[in-house]
Design a protein that fits this description.
Number of helices: 18
Strand content: 15-25%
Distance between the termini: 171 Å
Structural class: alpha+beta
Radius of gyration: 61 Å
Largest sheet: 6 strands, antiparallel
Shape: rod-shaped
Length: 635
């Protein structure tokens, strides 16, 4: 091998050495002083350029060529302008120190290599990964810096040009090879960093992650896998199988799952039962994925990820149990329950709900719409509605609130509607037929009791307590409406003598007949006939003036006479009555006691005048006189 070949090999060796040194220095700076990385890379490139200049290729007297431009340009390509500058400066200093006719051209060559490297790095952080940039970069580094030979004396041009024809291809190859070596080194470092990251992720992952070969032997495992298998360290798992850590039946089951994944060649997600290190049993959510050889496409193993879902399984069991209990409770509850979505479709209903509606039970199922159900219910007469509500079925109970529903067989349902999430409604139907019947019975009983409490048991007239309440009410109403109020006080003539002569039983019958005539005379619903006490009765005539009251009194006298009840102790020989009539238009100064006193005084006058008649006191108002001086007129 001639001297040029040896020099080329030496320069190639220097390039490889440059890549090796740069890789170590770059890794060290990245870890400790990232900010100094461009400077450190440039210094390495500068020394590599100086080393290359120590083994020059002789072109002509005083003119030499070497591989200095490769290391300087690569420094700029990888580290940018700062690295290019830091590489160029020591190389220039060294070249100037050598002297000779080619000093100027050598300096220019170094500067051009630095510019090319920085330009190739411009606006591309990973320029070295671009094949196109590498080719252009290698060609540029091989050709452009050599143009500096034009600054050499003209007499050395021919020999220099002849030598460059040989050197340029070699320089291109060296730059291209060195660049590829650097790129391979960078990619290797990236792969190592990614592997470290993956390893860190696997180690810190709290869930089990492992890989096995086709025979089921562990090849990779993280600490979580070791803990799950009660192994001290992940390395203790390597080369072993599930048979070494699990009961035979359980290990065989795991192996069968893996064989299925290997045969299908597709990821599989399954749930597996497993035994914990403490002896208890739990559940795993397991993802098994086949591992393929990138080159051959052959399955070479399987990766497994396990997540402990024992707690989740327990919660699911409790939830299912609670749902079953809730379902049983809803199914057996005494009330009908149905849930509708926002569109009126049944989401859920219990059996009691269907049983309440015997004619449309087959339609009241999940998925059915309330409008269809109501239309069918209306068509078969299942619900009794008021005429104004039977034109178009409207789901009134879809709105929150309470209402009652009356069915064709006489049952009454209470409907309670409440809103639920999503715009739906929850409706509860309660059969309150017996409740309503009991309420009606109670109301009737209360009415009977109320009537008994306000009715005289012998005559059927209002008793004294009811008389006092009702006349007070009518007096207040007459005062508000400025209307006349009349009162008839009635006494059966010589009734004590009647009782003594005929006996109390005949006397009671006499009272009943006289009272019946009084009720017959009180024709208006507002007239109040009452037993005032003993044989004394009263008749309250609201909105009745004196003439009307006298007419009623006259009718009643004649009605009692018409009874023709014998009375041997009376001068009339029949039962008669005496009546006192009083009329008043109450104002602010009048009292109810005044009206009763006037009627009672008129009754006294009727008795004094011979009985079997009526008398009245006409009270009139003179605003200038006190009540004690008002005139009283007897009729």
């Amino acid at each position: 091998m001639n001297s040029i070949g040896i020099l080329v090999l030496i320069n190639i060796a220097l390039a490889v050495l440059f890549v090796t040194v740069w890789s170590r220095v770059d890794a060290w700076l990245n870890e400790r002083q990232p900010a100094l990385r461009p400077v450190g890379l440039g210094i390495v490139g500068g020394f590599a350029a100086i080393a290359a200049m120590m083994f020059p290729i002789h072109l002509s007297p005083g003119v030499f060529a070497d591989m200095r431009t490769a290391s300087i340009a690569l420094s700029g390509l990888i580290g940018g302008p700062i690295s290019a500058l830091c590489a160029a400066l020591p190389a220039i200093v060294y070249r100037v120190s050598l002297g000779g006719v080619g000093t100027g051209a050598g300096t220019i060559t170094i500067l051009l290599a630095a510019v090319i490297g920085a330009a190739a790095n411009w606006n591309a952080e990973n320029a070295i990964h671009s094949n196109r940039r590498i080719l252009l970069f290698s060609a540029g580094v091989a050709v452009v810096p050599q143009l500096a030979f034009f600054v050499l004396p003209v007499e050395v041009w021919p020999k220099t040009l002849h030598g460059l024809i040989i050197v340029l291809p070699l320089l291109f190859i060296v730059v291209l090879m060195t660049t590829h070596l650097l790129r391979a080194e960078l990619r290797l470092r990236e792969t190592i960093e990614q592997a470290k990251l993956y390893r860190l992720i696997a180690q810190t992952l709290p869930e089990s992650l492992n890989a096995k070969d086709r025979q089921g032997r562990f090849i990779i495992a993280n600490p979580a896998t070791a803990r799950a298998l009660n192994a001290g360290d992940p390395s203790a798992l390597i080369g072993k199988t599930d048979m070494d850590f699990h009961p035979p039946e359980l290990a065989a089951s795991y192996r069968a799952d893996e064989q299925s994944v290997l045969e299908r060649g597709k990821p599989t997600h399954i749930e597996q039962y497993y035994k914990k290190p403490d002896g208890q049993w739990g559940w795993l959510s397991t993802l098994k994925n086949p591992i393929y050889n990138e080159k051959t496409g052959e399955i070479i193993g399987i990766v497994t990820h396990n997540r402990d879902i024992t707690h989740q399984k327990e919660l699911e069991r409790q939830l299912a149990e609670s749902q079953q209990q809730l379902s049983d409770a809803l199914a057996n509850m005494a009330d009908g329950l149905v849930m509708f979505d926002r569109n009126g479709n049944i989401v859920y209903c219990n059996a009691r709900y269907q049983a309440l509606f015997s004619k449309t039970a087959d339609l009241r199922v999940p998925g059915a719409n309330i409008r269809d159900i109501m239309a069918a219910s209306l068509a078969c007469g299942e619900e009794v509605r008021a005429p104004r509500d039977t034109d178009t079925p409207q789901p009134a109970f879809m709105q929150p609130g309470d209402r009652e529903m009356h069915l064709w067989d006489g049952r009454t349902l209470e409907v309670r509607t409440r809103s639920v999430g999503g715009g739906g409604s929850l409706v509860v139907f309660t059969d309150i037929t017996r409740t309503r019947e009991a309420e009606d019975i109670l109301k009737n009983a209360n009415r009977v009791l109320e009537k008994a409490a306000s009715t005289d048991g012998l005559t059927g007239l209002f008793n004294r307590r009811a008389f006092d309440e009702k006349i007070s009410h009518e007096f207040a109403r007459a005062r508000r409406s400025v209307e006349p109020l009349s009162l008839l006080m009635i006494d059966i003539d010589h009734f004590k003598l009647f009782n003594d002569h005929y006996g109390h039983q005949v006397g009671d019958e006499c009272l009943r007949q006289v009272a019946a005539r009084l009720k017959a005379v009180a024709k208006r619903s507002t007239d109040i006939a009452a037993r005032y006490g003993g044989e004394e009765m009263a008749l309250v005539l609201p909105n009745t003036d004196l003439s009307g009251a006298l007419e009623v009194a006259d009718q009643y006298l004649k009605a009692v006479r018409a009874l023709r009840i014998p009375h041997a102790q009376s001068s009339k020989h029949i039962v008669t009555v005496s009546i006192g009539v009083a009329t008043l238009v109450p104002n602010g100064g009048d009292r109810l006691e005044d009206l009763v006193a006037d009627a009672d005084r008129a009754l006294y006058c009727a008795k004094h005048e011979g009985r079997d008649g009526y008398q009245t006191t006409l009270a009139f108002r003179d605003e200038r006189l006190p009540r004690s001086e008002r005139r009283t007129s007897l009729q």
